[in-house]
Amino acid sequence: MIGDMPGTNLTRDEARERADLIEVDSYQVELDLTTGESTFTSTTTVKFRIRPGAITWLDLIAPAVREVVVNGESRDPAVVYDGARVGLDNLAEENEVKVVADAAYMKTGEGLHRFVDPVDDEVYLYSQFEVADARRVFACFEQPDLKATFQFTVVAPEHWHVISNAPAHKPRKANGKRRWKFAVTKRISSYITALVAGPYHVEESEYETKGRSIPLALYCR
User: Fold this and answer.
1) Would you give the DSSP letter of residue 148?
2) Order of strands across the sheet that contains 195-198
3) Of 7, 27, 98, 167, which one has the greatest count of Cβ atoms within 10 A?
């Protein structure tokens, strides 16, 4: 690992120091929910600016990290990942980091919760990231004052619905799957990003106000 990065959780001093160093621009998060019952593939590309010469880290809790690329240069996951943090050094003023990981589904409400309904035997997923569990789904600077835009892309079974913070473009079908690409969010904290996926029943409507139509939807098992 790079430097002294103890513990799983962020301390107050670490949060202050990192906020002074970094300005995060954007995240692109690609999730493949068709890879198994225990894990899913998570690919994160984050763009950020940092004080030249400084070192930092991305927060991530995942069973395995497959790839880390910093400004086009591959880093050895076994060296830079300690189970909770992806260490980053030799950074430029403007940086792009890609992290590919096998992230774990949860059954206790944190991160991306996976539930198998005993009535229909279908899988239903929903996220709960507050206060520091977005890092169980994608690599991020997991503190609320480091806001950025987010764009999610999700591959899911063809009969599933997928919902996130922003509207989705029409999903594309291929090989029994659908690929959902969502619009870019406004600048938000990582912990309020959200994902719901599964063969939910959907009821849709619209609310008319002041000449505007606001789409509404209700999802249930």
Assistant:
1) B
2) 111-116, 123-128, 195-198, 161-164
3) 27
Residues written for the chain: 221
CA–CA dist 62, 136 (Å, integer): 6
Do residues 132 and 10 touch, judged by C-beta distance below 8 A?
A: yes
pTM: 0.93
Cα 206 from Cα 51, distance rounded (Å)? 47
Within 10 angstroms of residue 49's Cβ, the number of other Cβ atoms is 15
Distance CA 17, CA 21 (A): 7
Query: Cα separation of 31 and 164, whole Å?
Result: 12
